[in-house]
Amino acid sequence: QVQLVESGGGSVQAGGSLRLSCEVSGDTYSTYCVGWFRQAPGKEREVVADTYTGGGKTYYADSVKGRFTVSLDSAKNILYLQMNSLKPEDTGMYYCASDDPLYGGTCPSEYTYWGQGTQVTVSS
After folding, report:
1. pLDDT digits 0-9 by tens, 32-90
2. Euclidean distance between CA atoms 105 and 110, whole angstroms
3. Residue 74's pLDDT is what?
4. Which H or E element spans position 73?
C-alpha cells in the first residue's frame, strides 16, 4: 500500500500564492509517477500536473502552465506544487496521487493511490 498526505491548502486572494506538499510513503518502487489533481464543486476531477520521479518531462495542464510548478524532494519523497498568480477558477480540492509508471516511464491516465485532499480557495 502507498500512503499520500497532502498539506498546504488554504484561502488566498486572486494573484496570491500557495505551496502544496504531498508526502508519499509505503510500498513504492524507487521511481514512480506522482501528480496533482483538482476537483471544483460540480465539476469533474482534472489533472493539474504529473511527473515521473525517474526523470523526464513534467506534464502541466494548459490552464496552469506558467503559473504552477512541480518539484520533488526525492530524498524525502515529497512532491510540491508551487502555485503562483492564483485565480478564482483555481479553487477546488487538490489531490495527490501516485502509481507505477507504464513502459518507458510514461505516467498512466488513471492513478491507483490517492491522498485525502487539501482545499484551495481563491477569492476575487
Report:
1. 899 999 999 899 999 999 999 888 789 999 999 999 999 999 889 999 999 999 999 99
2. 15
3. 86
4. strand 68-73
Nearest 10 degrees: CA dihedral of 54, 57, 60, 64?
A: 110
CB 17, CB 82: distance < 8 Å:
yes
pLDDT tens per residue, range 3-39: 999 999 999 999 999 999 999 988 776 788 999 999 9
Cell numbers linked to 65 = 502552465
3-state secondary structure of 18: strand
**Cβ atoms of 11 and 123 closer than 8 Å:** yes
Q: What are the cell numbers at 122? A: 481563491
Q: Nearest Cα to 118, choosing from 26, 2, 12?
A: 12
CA-based angle 115:34:100, to the nearest 5? 105
CB-based contact 39:30 (threshold 8 Å): no
Gap between the Cα atoms of 46 and 4, Å rounded: 18
C-alpha cell at 15: 494573484
